[in-house]
Design the sequence.
């Protein structure tokens, strides 16, 4: 792909992205700028696509991320006083030095999630991080950035993953609240992103009772609110006296997935354990979690969207980081797109 | 059909049995005939026909989806129906239905169509369904429903709906057929209890517990117990009303068709419980002999003459319309003896009781059983005061099998399991050395090891691969299993000339070199040929 803003360096070197983007033990590495993308070990300079624990971590010297992601990292104590932070709003270009330009495009995954766009030597590489194409009222939508190399995840890269519209899943929950009004609906959600997306979608579907939240979900929900999200009334479970079990009946309690069948859930009367996750499409997975209701809520692109996105970027080369790498590589090659697995270590099945 | 799919989803994801019963009750009350009867049948596992074959589904998928991606998906999901339900690629120009047909319409439609028609109808439905609905259809159609509800808890639900004891349901259940119109008419109070007195029906059998030598032997004495041989045949129930006779398997399957020689010989009115064997040359034959009859839905005259069916009867449940189930075993055996002597049956003998005075005598008898080359599996020891109770009551009947035979065999082939084990090589074929130094397969096993051991074997297989034959992975001849089995029979179908019964992995002999595994000749010694 021809690219407008060529730097002077392109006239003396003609390095292909294979040369300047590398896979190192620490993670994806942009050699001329000496910077890593979502490294899983502490490094000198790091670009962080979003705040989930398998992408963001502590101990880097210098961090480049969206302002929202920096705020999330601060909340999770991933940033120390001595960490040098550079916040870049979506679309804002930044010169990393040595001819490398960085900017962020929204990834539609969670608040602040971004695709890292790197331009060097006349070519453009987009590292998408985690992303999704389904609508999400709690974050900015995915933006297609034309590029030469598109680096994609493959968390749900199998034809069995066809995520239903979230409204249908939320409707299941609303119906159950009506037919089982005596039961406390305990919904297991990850604290960052899933929790807020589910709350927001429930509000849009007309659920108007307060939400009851587990302590682990508080800080990030407040952080979302500080960026203008409105979740209506929510109350900490711990603020309700233990004797008042009736308060929760027919209501929605949100907690981390591990708590739905744990000791914590015993404080509720006749709890109905529910899990909201993309994996819930697979029955055996839902049974494993002992979920009595499985809501298919994914913050990743499904099979169709992964392939569609790779095609829409027009990239000549697709690199695949983590997930069901083999299937996506195979399907892209069948469509005549050059694809390869990056064999990243330390990135197995992403949980969030 | 959508209500049915919803019901299955609700049952599938509900953990407590009580909650499942309530869900099923609500469905059965809210759903009209005949849909509720068909649903009941699907859940209780009493449907007697497939709506379509598994290979139709498979061939539809192969036309629509890349085989590599399909295999990867199925490996990941663990089973075919759910994979198809999730990944079904819509037809290019699908026909849209205004509504999904009712369950009974679906069943009638499939049954009325020919092969090509079944295929078209399946496509039409799959195109119009959600993944959950597709899953329900595929499971219903191939009778593969497993939603964690036993036949017993289905019956319990019905009993609670009518506020009667579960025995009432048990007593009529096997005489009823889907879609159970008479059953629901009775439950709704619009008809009497279905009258099955003139029908020849199955009644659920009484089962034995394996003996716990440390605890149970102390409970046994000649004053309170009898001992009998445990023959290696199949458990059957002979049920006759004087004019019509049926032979049922232990699970209530009607197998009369395979044994017309036996059926036509019976002339009594009642229900007997016993072991079915064959008598080649007038002597009781092995399980292998019996197998040749079991496999034949319509046996030839020649086969019936060569391998005539025979019963060793050990209990009687009803005689001339009298229910004997509440009487003690001693009383029932007396009546069984009387029935057989008043009315001699050419193909039914009474099971002899084995005299014993001490527990040592029982040990000796069990030892004797081990010398019969598998014809006798061990001992049955029964409390003489026990009533005939369906299910597995405690301390009433014990089975005491002789010790299994053990052999050291070499792993030859491995293939992946299904479901939870789909990512592991968990099915193993193993063999023994011939005189010429070849390894000949003698059996397959897929259980007997712990999850931890499974992981280790799986790792071993992956590191010692040879050729691949479709799903079957050949491995280097380097891993020895100590294999336990109940008996071995000569078999022409196996290259080694033998077939094992109930083989399982007893121990993994990581320490033992393959060259020191057993030879075929040691099997010959065990079989006694
Ligand atoms: Zn993420």
Sequence:
């Amino acid at each position: 792909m021809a690219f407008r803003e060529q730097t002077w360096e392109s006239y003396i070197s003609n390095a292909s992205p294979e040369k300047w983007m590398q896979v190192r033990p620490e993670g994806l590495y942009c050699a001329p700028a000496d910077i890593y993308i979502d490294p899983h070990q502490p490094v000198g300079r790091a670009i962080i696509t979003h705040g989930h624990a398998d992408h963001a971590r502590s101990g880097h010297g210098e961090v480049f991320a969206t302002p929202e992601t920096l705020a999330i990292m601060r909340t999770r104590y991933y940033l120390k006083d001595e960490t040098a932070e550079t916040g870049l709003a979506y679309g804002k270009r930044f010169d990393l030095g040595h001819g490398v330009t960085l900017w962020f495009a929204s990834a539609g995954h969670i608040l602040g999630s971004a695709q890292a766009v790197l331009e060097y030597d006349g070519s453009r590489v987009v590292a998408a991080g985690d992303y999704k194409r389904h609508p999400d009222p709690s974050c900015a939508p995915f933006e297609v950035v034309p590029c030469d190399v598109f680096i994609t995840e493959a968390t749900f890269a199998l034809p069995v993953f066809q995520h239903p519209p979230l409204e249908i899943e939320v409707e299941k929950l609303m119906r159950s609240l009506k037919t089982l009004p005596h039961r406390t609906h305990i919904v297991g959600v990850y604290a960052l992103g899933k929790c807020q997306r589910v709350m927001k979608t429930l509000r849009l579907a007309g659920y108007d009772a307060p939400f009851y939240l587990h302590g682990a979900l508080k800080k990030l929900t407040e952080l979302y609110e500080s960026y203008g999200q409105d979740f209506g009334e929510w109350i900490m479970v711990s603020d309700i006296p233990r004797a008042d079990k009736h308060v929760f009946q027919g209501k929605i309690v949100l907690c981390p997935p591990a708590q739905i069948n744990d000791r914590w859930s015993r404080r509720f009367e006749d709890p109905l354990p529910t899990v909201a996750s993309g994996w819930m499409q697979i029955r055996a997975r839902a049974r494993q979690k002992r979920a009595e209701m499985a809501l298919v809520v994914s913050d990743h692109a499904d099979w169709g969207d992964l392939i569609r996105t790779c095609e829409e970027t027009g990239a000549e080369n697709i690199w695949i980081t983590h997930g069901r790498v083999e299937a996506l590589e195979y399907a892209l090659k069948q469509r005549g797109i050059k694809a390869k697995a990056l064999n990243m270590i330390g990135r197995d099945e992403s949980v969030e | 059909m959508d209500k049915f799919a919803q019901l299955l989803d609700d049952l599938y994801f509900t953990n407590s049995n009580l909650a499942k019963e309530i869900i099923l009750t609500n469905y059965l009350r809210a759903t009209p005939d005949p849909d509720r009867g068909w649903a009941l049948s699907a859940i209780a596992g009493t449907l007697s026909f497939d709506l379509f074959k598994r290979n139709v589904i498979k061939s539809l998928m192969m036309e629509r989806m890349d085989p590599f991606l399909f295999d990867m998906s199925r490996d990941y999901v663990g089973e075919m129906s759910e994979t198809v339900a999730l990944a079904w690629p819509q037809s290019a120009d699908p026909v849209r239905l205004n509504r999904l047909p009712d369950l009974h319409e679906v069943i009638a439609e499939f049954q009325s169509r020919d092969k090509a028609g079944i295929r078209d109808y399946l496509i039409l439905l799959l195109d119009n369904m959600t993944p959950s609905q597709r899953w329900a259809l595929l499971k219903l159609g191939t009778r593969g429903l497993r939603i964690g509800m036993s036949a017993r808890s289905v019956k319990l639900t019905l009993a609670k709906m009518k506020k009667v004891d579960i025995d009432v349901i048990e007593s009529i259940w096997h005489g009823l057929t889907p879609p159970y119109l008479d059953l629901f008419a009775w439950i709704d109070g619009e008809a009497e209890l279905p009258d099955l007195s003139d029908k020849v029906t199955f009644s659920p059998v009484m089962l034995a517990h394996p003996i716990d030598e440390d605890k149970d032997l102390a409970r046994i004495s000649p004053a309170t117990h009898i001992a009998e041989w445990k023959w290696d045949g199949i458990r059957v129930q002979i049920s006759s009303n004087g004019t019509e006779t049926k032979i049922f398997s232990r699970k209530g399957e009607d197998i009369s068709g395979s044994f017309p020689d036996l059926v036509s010989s019976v002339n009594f009115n009642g229900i007997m419980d016993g072991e079915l064997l064959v008598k080649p040359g007038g002597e009781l034959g092995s399980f292998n002999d019996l197998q040749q009859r079991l496999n034949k839905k319509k046996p030839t005259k020649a086969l019936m003459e060569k391998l005539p069916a025979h019963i060793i009867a050990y209990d009687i449940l009803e005689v001339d319309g009298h229910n004997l189930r509440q009487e003690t075993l001693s009383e029932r055996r007396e009546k069984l003896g009387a029935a057989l002597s008043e009315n001699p049956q050419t193909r039914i003998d009474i099971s002899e009781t084995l005299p014993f005075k001490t527990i040592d005598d029982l040990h000796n008898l069990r030892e004797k059983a081990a010398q019969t080359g598998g014809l006798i599996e061990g001992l049955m020891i029964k409390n003489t005061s026990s009533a005939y109770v369906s299910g597995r009551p405690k301390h009433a009947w014990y089975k005491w099998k002789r010790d299994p035979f053990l052999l050291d065999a070499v792993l030859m082939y491995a293939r992946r399991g299904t479901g939870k084990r789909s990512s592991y090589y968990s099915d193993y074929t193993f063999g023994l050395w011939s005189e010429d130094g070849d390894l000949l397969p003698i059996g397959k096993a897929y259980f007997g090891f712990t999850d931890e051991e499974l992981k280790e074997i799986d790792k071993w297989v992956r590191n010692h691969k040879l050729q691949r034959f479709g799903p079957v992975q050949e491995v280097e001849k380097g891993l020895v299993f100590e294999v336990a089995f109940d008996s071995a029979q000569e078999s022409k179908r196996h290259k080694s000339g033998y077939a094992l019964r109930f083989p399982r992995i007893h121990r993994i002999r990581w320490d033992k070199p393959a060259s020191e595994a057993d030879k075929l000749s040691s099997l010959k010694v065990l079989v006694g040929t």
Q: What stands out?
A: Residues 216 and 371 of chain B are 24 Å apart (CA to CA). Chain B has 20 helices and 19 strands. The radius of gyration of chain B is 26 Å. The mean pLDDT of chain B is 90.
